[in-house]
Prior knowledge:
By secondary structure, chain A is mainly alpha-helical. Helix content of chain A is 69%, strand content 0%. Chain A starts with a helix and ends with a helix. By secondary structure, chain B is an alpha+beta fold. Chain B folds into two domains: 74-225, Alpha-Beta Complex (Penicillin-binding protein 2a (Domain 2)), CATH 3.90.1310; 231-273 and 293-585, Beta-lactamase, CATH 3.40.710.10. In chain B, strands 1, 2, 3, 4 and 7 form a five-stranded mixed sheet that branches. Chain B has a five-stranded antiparallel sheet with strand order 9-8-20-19-18, sandwiched between helices. A two-stranded antiparallel ribbon of chain B has the order 5-6. In chain B, helix 4 runs antiparallel to helix 5. The longest helix of chain B is centred in the first third of the chain and has 28 residues, at 36-63.
Amino acid sequence: MLRFLNLAAIAALIGSAVYAYTIKYQTSYRAEQITKTKIEIKAESDAIAVLRAEWAYMTRPERLQQLADQYLIDFKPLDVKQLIVASALPDKAARTDMIGGKLDALGLGLAATPPVASQASVNATAASASKASPPVTKSQALNEGPVSSPERVLSQEHKKP
Amino acid sequence: MTQNPPDANPKTRRSGKSMREKKFLKHMFSTRLAASAPRMRFAALGFLVLYGAICGRLIYLGFKPDPATSRRAAAQAVSASRPDIVDRKGEVLASDVKVMSVFAEPRRLIDKDEATELLSAVLPDIDSRDLRERLGAKKGFVWVKREVTSHQRDEVFHLGLPGVGLIAENKRVYPNGPIGAHVLGFANIDNAGIAGIEKYIDGQGLADLHNMGFAATPGDLKPIALSLDIRATHALRDELEKGVEHFKAKAGAAAIMDVNTGEIIALASLPDYDPNKPTDALDPNHINRMNVGVYEMGSTFKALTIAMALDSGKLNLNSKLDASGALSFGRFKIHDYHAQNRALTVPEVFTYSSNVATARMAMGQGVEKHKAFLKKLGQLTRMRTELPESAEPIVPKNWGELNTVTIAFGHGLAVAPLQAMMAVGALMNGGYMITPTFLKRSEEEAKGNAEQVIKAETSEAMRYLMRLNAEIGTAKKVDIDGYFVGGKTGTAEKVINGHYSKTRLFTTFMAVAPSDRPKYLFLTIMDEPQGLPETGGYATAAYNSGYVTGQIIQRVGPVLGLAPRFDPPHEPFPLLAKLGYGMANTPAVGGAKH
């Protein structure tokens, strides 16, 4: 009995020693990893700083202007007159039933919305838009003319092929 | 204290005590079996305390940070990291990059001649004799070369010389070169701020922390956001450069200020320098003319005089002032440049820029009131911003009536242009005196402790006058479509050998946009611009500074997000309309020639 206890004690001793050393080596391994990662992080953050500085250097307004002068020959600086306020833009045109209109035109009837009605509604919205904003000549110019329905133009183009 | 009765014999007491001691010792050293158990317990207690102390110490050490690594981190940081400087939109204006420097430890060098030979072969731009001398010194540490290229770094490394090492250092870089240089300042090779905002940052405690050895790692340092907009600054500088070249001026400067917050959005002073080459900054011709130079601002100062007269209530917009003929004052005669020789209303005084009438206005107020008003507007004392460089205004020592007369139209008092900008800003923004800043700031912060120096009505009247001047007066060059700009020219004759020179001029131009809801104040100054054939030979402010300001507004407007309006604002000056000046809200009809 006593011998068994002795053996058990020795085994426990060796076991605990092995365990302790494993922990120790693992710890130093981890510590090494941490140091390595820290160095890597530092190198990366230094590199980021360099890249940021380089980016700022490459995109400095002076250089961009020089490049623009060199390559964007057809471009002109933005003129104040090219800007208009959002409220001066015409409203989006009302949706029209294109296929229905086509069928109507072919005399097949059963059209959902007669084209005349849709045109009237577009004009109405355009008028309300120009009323809401101060009388801008540009916006009026945009609202006049044939019903400004980009949708219609687009869908016709799509139909061609 | 023993409890023995006082009459007890001291001798018997002592013998009793020694008896007890003897008994205790006998017990201690007895070999009786019965005595061993408490002894064991005593020994066990002793060991328990010992191991307990060791455990406690281990736990204490376990929680304590590693002293070696923190010292290393401190050493790294003490090689001066500085916070990044960014503009108001976050663009990098100044940043630290790591560079390698070569150092040597002369005591550890084996063959100094060989080391000198090898090092000067790798680093061709160092003087080998000088290097040999330095390596011969009995020092522990000498620099061989600071800031080497990555190629040189590898070569030095491959030399494998014992006693020669490489160390990473922080180097300050300014990616935008001369753009914003006068505001940024620069840092020296030890990364200490020498001028501008860089020096200001050091003054905020960074330098103290470094000197005390506290670790300030780059991660701890928050970037410092300036009020500058780098794109606007570039556009401004570019236009100014073109203007200075075109009008063959000796120097020029321009700035944009947000009148509601006092933030300087853009600033340029030509000629300038590249902060990456700090030696250029020492040239006295490269000073920041906006902040360090003091100049007689000329007619721009009339705005201050008129504001004073209007604010006192003594005059109103309909008052008429005599401007017929020159004003004699002792042996001096004051003339008008655009002489009308009749009585002028206040708006006419402004648009014709009448010296005579403005002088009369100031005389009507008296010397003391004039002085007090200029003091209130910060024109008589040194203006302090974040920039360490500043200049004291040149104020006449014995301020008499003649001084008041000349200062009324901007001669005889020299101030920093930025200082004049601060005063005109206060006239524009509703009367709040806001010291300009180079750091980002909100309107609440700026107006929180701002003093109201003139009434809101006076401020609006001044904006009306500025606008009127752009519509029909001397400032037509800045009437850029859509921005409802107002402006005032200023031409001062320079003092050459104690006399005002007719040919050497200093021109200034102040513009505000938009006039109804003031946001930005523009100032352009030019030193000795020349008259050109297309300006009819004129070199007065409207032709050069005014023209450049117009160009700047046109170019910077979209960059600053200033929304253009193509219909004149419905009622730009509501307070004036209430006071019965309905004419302020209708477009003006022409009068002046230019």
